[in-house]
Amino acid sequence: MRKLIYGINITLDGCCDHTKFTGGDEIQDYFRELLEGVDLIVYGRKTYELMVPFWPEVAETQSMDRAANAFAKVFSGLDRVLVSRTIKEVNDKKTTLIGDNLEAEILRLKQHPGKAISTGGVELPARLIELGLVDEFHMVVHPLMVGSGRRLFAEMQLPANLGLKLMDTQTLANGCLALRYEKI
Description:
Helices cover 31% and strands 27% of the residues. The chain has six helices and eight strands. It has an eight-stranded mixed sheet, with helices on both faces. A hairpin with a 5-residue loop joins strand 7 (164-171) and strand 8. Helix 1 (25-36) runs parallel beside helix 4 and helix 3 crosses helix 4.
């Protein structure tokens, strides 16, 4: 069965609001390398609308710096699943839509052959974690506190503690700490 991998940037004070901090080339490279190991991305509406059509357009125009262009190229080549109850159709040949039966649909995707599946954002991954569907967590902790902004999993409700095993750490030159955990 394919793994479902969750990756996110977070500050020391728990902020995951992408408007409060940036990561630079090392963060782009880290997440590009993560995406090179998957062949499907699953996003909720908010994250999807941040990523598409922005990154596919960058992949086409190569209009940013080296790291962003490389990330865009990898991102653009991946198939995508949009989970939304409000969007009824998408005009992107790489994207399919899931509206209902989230747990059954994700389990079906995990059973298909292929590489791992990636997810990002906050609300959808929280639901996937609550359902016990996320197998691996990639948390990139930025060495700053921003004092305000959206907090990671502030409203998540787990039926029991979720045990994780630290599998890898990587200290990036910019001071970020990349942590990889697997569900026990």
